[in-house]
Amino acid sequence: MRFRLPHTIRSRTILVLFCAFLLSHTISLAIYEINRDKTILLTEATDLADRIIGVVELARSFPERDRQRILAAAETQFLTMFPEPGNLDDERCRDNDFSRRVTESLGGAFADVPGFHAQVCLRRLKPAPLLARNEPLHGFDVLVAVNFPDNERAVFHAILPEGESLIHDAVLVYLLFSGLIALLLAGYLIRKTVAPLGQLAKAADSIGTNIDTPPLPENGPAEVAAAARAFNRMQQRLARLVHGQTEMLAAISHDLRSAVTRLQLRAELLQDRQEREGLQRVVDDMKTMIQSVLDFARGLDPSETPRRIDLSALAESLCDDLKEEGYPVQFRSGGADCVTECRPVALRRSLHNIIDNAIKYGSEAKVSVEGTAESIRIVVEDCGPGIPMHELEAVLQPFYRLEKSRNSKTGGVGLGLSIAGNTVQAHGGELSLENINGGGLRVQMQLSRC
Ligand SMILES: Nc1ncnc2c1ncn2[C@@H]1O[C@H](COP(=O)(O)OP(=O)(O)O)[C@@H](O)[C@H]1O
Ligand SMILES: [Mg+2]
């Protein structure tokens, strides 16, 4: 199985910190344990040598016949005395720091005794387990054979208990606790550090739907603040560009409208009936086009103040109006509460465009509104031919039409769906189109609740 790094910066940083914490503590504990064992053993070597020197000096100050008695009296739990050297095999008498230290100390103390000789054998009693607990018999046992020139000899046997390992339960609990506290603290700080990145992602997402979202706070760590500043500058430039183009579009359409009105007046003055009616049809087409462009420009205009309204009631009143005008429109409400904050004029215009399409291209419109805890869905269905799969996305683009020849029956300019799409997006929602099995188109306006 491949190891997968955690997903977020926060959990990755915590993982790195955790590994670093574990590694550094393990290394420092190991170094400490090794040095500590060595230091303790060497201190014990000096201590043992001192005790042997004391006992030997005491015994030598007595006449020869009392010496064994003195030596026997000096026995303790950790230092026993054998009159004979016993089996000092080579394996145990290997040269090491401990035996060198004991030999040196003894040699120093008995330097004035010619022919003095000491032999030290050290053996580990039992390999110390990693988590050593209260097991008294682990450590080392030592045999020290001391020879004097007058053929006198004594063999001392000592047990050196090993100091308890530092890695015991309390230390592990302490490490666990300190590690946990350090990680919690690190988690909190990392969360604070990376939080602006989340805001940046959200803001980038929301300028797709609303170019006038408020600027990001430019605080936090230097790199994040710089990214927020750059993002705000980009948003300002984009907003200027979008608003500039929309205003230009609206201004041109407005001027065109006055020109078309003048043209209409002139057409009415024409004597020739056929010519007059022909020109009036052209003028009507132009008026529809101009109105659509103005609607499109207004759809991008965020000046309408959002209000809390019931979307179901909004859709129902629009359907009632259209029905009264004689259009084939049916309305069905899901019954759920559909109150949300939105721009009702823009939404009504968008829904009107979609219902208008259903009537024009699909002969009738069935409108329904459903609400869930997170969103509200307005669905418009018809029984027309639908839209070819490969063109479902394209019809959302401005000026894209399937009917290339505009006529008075279906005379739009291809802006209705893009107006609706922009408006729904500006509400943080999504407009989706799908063909219904058995014929017809289903258009869904999915709006998130505020
Ligand atoms: N309900 C529908 N059924 C079939 N085709 C549709 C439907 N709605 C829209 N279309 C197609 O999508 C195109 C774009 O629609 P729209 O943006 O409203 O522009 P317009 O209605 O002005 O042509 C239309 O020209 C039409 O070809
Ligand atoms: Mg249309």
TrEMBL record:
<dbReference type="InterPro" id="IPR005467">
    <property type="entry name" value="His_kinase_dom"/>
</dbReference>
<protein>
    <recommendedName>
        <fullName>histidine kinase</fullName>
        <ecNumber>2.7.13.3</ecNumber>
    </recommendedName>
</protein>
<dbReference type="InterPro" id="IPR003661">
    <property type="entry name" value="HisK_dim/P_dom"/>
</dbReference>
<keyword id="KW-1133">Transmembrane helix</keyword>
<dbReference type="Pfam" id="PF02518">
    <property type="entry name" value="HATPase_c"/>
</dbReference>
<dbReference type="Pfam" id="PF00672">
    <property type="entry name" value="HAMP"/>
</dbReference>
<keyword id="KW-0997">Cell inner membrane</keyword>
<dbReference type="InterPro" id="IPR003594">
    <property type="entry name" value="HATPase_dom"/>
</dbReference>
<keyword id="KW-0547">Nucleotide-binding</keyword>
<keyword id="KW-0472">Membrane</keyword>
<dbReference type="GO" id="GO:0000155">
    <property type="term" value="F:phosphorelay sensor kinase activity"/>
</dbReference>
<keyword id="KW-0812">Transmembrane</keyword>
<feature type="domain" description="Histidine kinase">
    <location>
        <begin position="251"/>
        <end position="450"/>
    </location>
</feature>
<dbReference type="InterPro" id="IPR036890">
    <property type="entry name" value="HATPase_C_sf"/>
</dbReference>
<keyword id="KW-0902">Two-component regulatory system</keyword>
<keyword id="KW-0597">Phosphoprotein</keyword>
<dbReference type="Pfam" id="PF00512">
    <property type="entry name" value="HisKA"/>
</dbReference>
<dbReference type="GO" id="GO:0005524">
    <property type="term" value="F:ATP binding"/>
</dbReference>
<dbReference type="GO" id="GO:0005886">
    <property type="term" value="C:plasma membrane"/>
</dbReference>
<keyword id="KW-0808">Transferase</keyword>
<keyword id="KW-0067">ATP-binding</keyword>
<keyword id="KW-0418">Kinase</keyword>
<dbReference type="InterPro" id="IPR004358">
    <property type="entry name" value="Sig_transdc_His_kin-like_C"/>
</dbReference>
<feature type="domain" description="HAMP">
    <location>
        <begin position="191"/>
        <end position="243"/>
    </location>
</feature>
<dbReference type="InterPro" id="IPR003660">
    <property type="entry name" value="HAMP_dom"/>
</dbReference>
<keyword id="KW-1003">Cell membrane</keyword>
<dbReference type="InterPro" id="IPR050980">
    <property type="entry name" value="2C_sensor_his_kinase"/>
</dbReference>
<dbReference type="InterPro" id="IPR036097">
    <property type="entry name" value="HisK_dim/P_sf"/>
</dbReference>
